[in-house]
Design brief:
single chain; alpha/beta; 295 residues; two-stranded antiparallel sheet; globular; 8-stranded mixed β-sheet
């Protein structure tokens, strides 16, 4: 984008007062020469605040890598995550309600930066939220990346949570990672960062996966769509039960069908699974995302 790759960033935070409660928008600003590329808003998963997800540390930071590529990068913490107070009734705080916060963030970004639209990148449940927003033409989404996205396969083996919030656990955090694809030290740093940020999070996102999928109508998305999946989201990880092959085949078919219905592009990234941006495939993930967002 005509800007020398920056190596140092300053962050600034603004509080958004939405109908769903307080959300926090963090901007990454290059020191010396401000970026002039598209504005990219990063949305995390159901368990992580935005910081641990997208800016774990200088060595594992999607936010900083996108900034080095010239994008104006912003992270959004939703109500109930990070320093944000819980939303009203956290047990029902699902993607539809979270989308209202994202729309408020987009409005703030458009006003602040004088752009016509914003790129969204959502991971896991964050991809559900990004998809809900992108399916509304009035939301001013320029491009959307749905990463680790599950279009319609409900978690029907789980019971609906009875508590409005759920505990964050070491086992739950590590379950996103494929041991054979690990980068030394990342798993422990991720656990430490997530637990320092959130010991409990709203239960509403989990209820989305159990009862409410599908949440996104691909036919309503008018902007360009990139679907990114780690290879072991769509095929059995090493050492897994061969009987699971049918499950992964169904996941792939579901994602391919969604992509066909929104004229999207599906990229499978080797070297990881649901959290491949933390794993050996991180650079391939970045290459795919940057290539799409630069178009």
């Amino acid at each position: 984008h005509g800007i020398a790759a920056p190596t140092t960033f300053m962050t600034s935070e603004s509080i958004l007062h939405t109908a769903e409660g307080e959300a926090r928008l963090t901007s990454f600003d290059a020191v010396g020469a401000p970026n002039t590329g598209p504005c990219v808003l990063l949305l995390p998963s159901a368990t992580y605040a935005a910081g641990p997800c997208w800016d774990l540390d200088p060595e594992t930071s999607v936010a900083r890598e996108l900034g080095r590529a010239g994008f104006r990068v912003l992270l959004l913490d939703l109500p109930g995550y990070g320093a944000c107070a819980d939303p009203p009734d956290p047990g029902s705080f699902g993607a539809t309600r979270a989308a209202r916060c994202v729309r408020a963030a987009i409005d703030a970004i458009v006003e602040r930066h004088g752009v016509e639209g914003v790129d969204l990148v959502g991971w896991s449940w964050g991809a559900q939220v990004a998809g809900v927003v992108a399916a509304d033409p009035a939301s001013r989404v320029r491009r959307v990346v749905l990463y680790g996205f599950n279009p319609s396969s409900r978690y029907d083996w789980l019971e609906a949570p009875s508590d409005p919030t759920r505990w964050t656990t070491v086992e739950g955090i590590k379950s996103d990672l494929v041991p054979s694809c690990s980068v030394p030290g990342v798993s422990d740093r991720l656990v430490e960062a997530v637990l320092a940020s959130d010991t409990a999070v709203p239960s509403g996102p989990l209820l989305d996966f159990i009862e409410h999928l599908p949440l996104v109508d691909p036919a309503r998305i008018e902007c360009p769509v990139l679907l990114i999946a780690g290879e072991f989201e769509l095929s059995p990880p090493p050492g897994s039960d061969p009987a699971l092959a049918g499950f992964f085949d169904a996941r792939r078919a579901d994602l391919e069908d969604f992509g066909a219905r929104c004229d999207g592009t599906l990229v499978t990234v080797d070297g990881g699974g649901h959290a491949v941006h933390f794993e050996r495939g991180q650079q391939k993930w970045l290459d795919a995302a940057v290539g799409f967002l630069e178009e």
